[in-house]
Design goal:
about 550 residues; alpha/beta; eight-stranded mixed sheet; six-stranded mixed sheet; binds acetoacetyl-coenzyme A
């Protein structure tokens, strides 16, 4: 068939679909249906009810319904016990939720959102039911985090009214909603859903239908990288998580977050991302797969990377070994830069004797480590490499901030434990890092930042939308581009180049847009600073 004729047919059917939906966008949302009352569904029902919107809560049977309402009740009771709402508020909010074990109760709703397991077949059946019972005016939304919204929409009678409305876990807390439109979406429907998200007290980011949207497409490869570092014995689970909380300021470490999201859910999302984009960064870590096969799916099953409540998996406990004593005298070796000056001042403040001459007796040789530069050459040059460790301070020197104790292949166990004890004496949280590019914080952070740059470079989302998605969806203290500007595009570029040289993974190759910013000395978050600075591209 000639292209023009095919295009005309597609155009006519789209127009027909859109014509049927022309008044959807203008409608007021008074009542919604939430289909599926698992953790996310119950949280979403709570969000609607708290905003004064009536909720028809639908589950397959009474037992599932009661479980879901139990989650909702527990969350509201916690809010009462914390003094966030009164008991009267709780009763009023709960009174807005009308449980139903079947779809017919959704006949009068203005919007229905499905929050069921991530299987296209199940979702299609639900949308077929919603198609049957809901008014033709109603908007149908999916909370899918990884499936194609387009594929879900295309299976319905009226694809124009189907959009993605993606909430984040825990739904009552996280302020982001990704509103996902498809090539079939009727004009105005995504805007109406974005307006609804604002009414819920959330911030919408509007995007096109691409695997993982913004937040999961950035979060999941970073989480996958963290578990692959654990699998490789690069670092312990506790240190990987501490590197990200104390070193970057994230609210949870990546391994704890994997357990919260669910290892099975994370694996499924990675498989979808790998199917869509290919490439090494999305290949699920073998350990992730094995834990899922073993039924260790995270918090929900009581055991994932960690054991709940409270305990840690033995594998994750592999620390530096024997606890050492802090040194009285340290030989400090640096290259006369700010890293050395910073270390010298904290050592002096802690009353530790410092010598600069490796020929003098001391309890530890301490190399002032710099990101992107290996420690071993300086340790070898000192002539006592077994007594040497590096120390890298990636953040500020506030008490409790992070020190990376860098272990070379010649560092003795005594040197490592003395280095860890020294960090504790200096009031720093310490992680043990191998003498590899990026040490631990950079190894986790730089590829994550490169993914964010690639997303902007691809024209999928603006730097501003990426920052919004990660701060409001995942609780980052600042967005990836602010983190990148704080670290400095040149530093991040150098770190990625070193990682790419060492490992050769294509995903570590610095994106051209990063190299351009580094070369031109342009920040990503400065308005008007270059062709694709924050707000320069539009999320579609
Ligand atoms: N339900 C309801 N409220 C909850 C909650 C839950 N499950 N968990 C925590 N809260 C509330 C608490 O009641 C508390 O509220 P108040 O301030 O009103 O008292 C507030 O959240 C803070 O909780 P805590 O003090 O107990 O704990 P915290 O300060 O350590 O914060 C956290 C907990 C909000 C989960 C925080 O660690 C965080 O932001 N983590 C990152 C979460 C994240 O990245 N989510 C996105 C995951 S990806 C996703 O969801 C998408 C997908 O498709 C997979």
């Amino acid at each position: 068939m000639p292209t023009v004729a095919l295009g005309a047919i597609i155009g006519r059917s789209l127009a027909a679909a859109r014509g049927r939906d022309c008044n959807l966008a203008a409608m007021e949302i008074h009542e919604v249906a939430v289909v599926g009352l698992g953790t996310m569904g119950a949280g979403i029902a709570e969000v609607f009810a708290r905003a004064g919107i009536g909720v028809v809560a639908i589950e397959a049977d009474e037992a599932a319904l009661n479980r879901g309402l139990g989650i909702l009740d527990a969350s509201l009771s916690r809010a009462v016990s914390r003094g966030r709402i009164t008991a009267a508020d709780q009763a009023e909010i709960r009174g807005r939720v009308r449980p139903a074990a079947g779809f017919s109760a959704a006949a009068g709703v203005d919007l229905a959102i499905e929050v069921v397991p991530e299987q296209l077949q199940i979702k299609r059946q639900i949308f077929a039911e919603l198609d049957r019972v809901c008014s033709p005016e109603a908007i149908l939304a999916t909370n899918t985090s990884s499936l194609s919204v387009t594929a879900i929409a295309a299976g319905t009678a009226n694809p124009g009214r189907v959009v993605g409305m993606h909430f984040f876990n825990p739904a009552p807390v996280m302020r982001l909603v990704e509103v996902v439109s498809t090539v079939l979406s009727a004009e105005g429907v995504p805007d109406a859903v974005a307006a609804l998200a604002r009414r819920l007290g959330k911030t919408p980011v509007q995007v096109a239908d691409r695997a993982g949207f913004v937040a999961n497409a950035l979060l999941l490869p970073y989480l996958n990288h963290a578990i692959s570092l654990l699998d490789a014995g690069y670092s312990s689970a506790a240190d990987i998580d501490l590197a990200c909380t104390a070193g970057i300021g994230l609210p949870m470490g990546p391994l704890a977050l994997l357990d919260m999201i669910g290892l099975d859910t994370s694996l499924a999302i990675l498989e979808v991302l790998h199917g869509e984009f290919g490439g090494d960064r999305y290949v699920p870590a073998a350990l992730l797969r094995r834990l899922v096969e073993a039924g260790r799916t995270g918090r929900k099953s009581g055991r994932g990377i960690y054991t709940y409540p409270g305990g840690a998996d033995p594998r994750s406990d592999a620390g530096p070994g024997e606890a050492g004593s802090p040194p009285d005298t340290v030989t400090l070796i640096g290259s006369g830069d700010s890293a050395e000056a910073e270390l010298a001042s904290v050592l002096a403040a802690a009353g530790i004797n410092v010598t600069r001459n490796a020929a003098h007796r001391s309890d530890l040789i301490l190399i002032a480590a710099q990101a992107g530069r290996p420690v071993l050459p300086a340790a070898l040059a000192a002539g006592r490499a077994d007594e040497a460790v590096g120390m890298h301070l990636p953040g500020t020197l506030a008490p409790g901030s992070l020190a990376e104790v860098v272990q070379t292949s010649l560092s003795s166990p005594v040197a490592v434990s003395t280095g860890m004890a020294l960090a504790a004496k200096l009031g720093l949280s310490a992680v043990l890092a191998p003498d590899r590019p990026g040490f631990l914080v950079g190894a986790l952070l730089y590829p994550h930042l490169a993914d964010a740059v690639r997303m902007v470079q691809d024209g999928y989302a603006s730097a501003a939308d990426v920052n919004t998605a990660m701060t409001l969806g995942c609780g980052y203290p600042t967005g990836p581009f602010e983190l990148l500007d704080t670290a400095g595009p040149t530093t991040v570029l150098a770190g990625l180049e070193a990682m790419y040289d060492a490992y050769g993974y294509p995903s570590f190759a610095p994106p051209p847009l990063l190299a351009e910013h580094a070369a031109a000395g342009i920040a990503f978050t400065r308005r008007g600073a270059g062709p694709r600075s924050a707000d320069a591209t539009t999320a579609r």
